[in-house]
Amino acid sequence: MTTIREIMSTTLLTVEATTSLAEAAAQMDGRHVGAALVLTGDHVSGILTERDILRAVATGPVEGTNVAAWMTREPETIDSEATTGQEAAPRIQG
Q1: N or C: which end of the chain has fewer CB within 10 A?
Q2: 66 φ, ψ (degrees, to nearest 5)
Q3: Hey, CA dihedral for 7, 11, 16, 19, is it positive or negative?
Q4: Residue 54 to residues 6, 10, 26, Cα–Cα distance (Å)
Q5: How far is Cα 85 from Cα 58, in angstroms, rounded to an integer?
Q6: Can you tell me the distance from the alpha carbon of 89 to that of 36, in angstroms, rounded to the nearest whole number?
Q7: pLDDT tens, 22-42?
């Protein structure tokens, strides 16, 4: 069976939670991508999508706003060795 590693992209855009929303949007535009992974150290702490940016702009001026204010926190991830037919493990709420 095919693994995630065999089909995944490895040239992902990453930003820090403290990156300004405008800078993250500019990086996404420059790379022609619709999302950026938000890293805290080596941990994926969030994902910022075009939709998140649209929601932010719809509320008014975004000067001084950073990625952390609008990102989706703790997105579900899957191990690169998982197979494409395998479901993600359920999250444990605690």
Answers
A1: C
A2: -110, 170
A3: negative
A4: 32, 26, 13
A5: 38
A6: 23
A7: 999 999 999 999 999 999 988
Write out the DSSP string of the chain. Answer: --BHHHH--S---EEETTSBHHHHHHHHHHHT-SEEEEEETTEEEEEEEHHHHHHHHHTS--TT-BGGGTSEES-----TTSBTTPPPPPPPP-
Distances (CA, A) of 26 to 29, 33, 59: 5, 10, 19
Dump pLDDT digits (tens) for 38-73: 999 888 999 999 999 999 999 999 999 999 999 999
Identity of residue 24? A
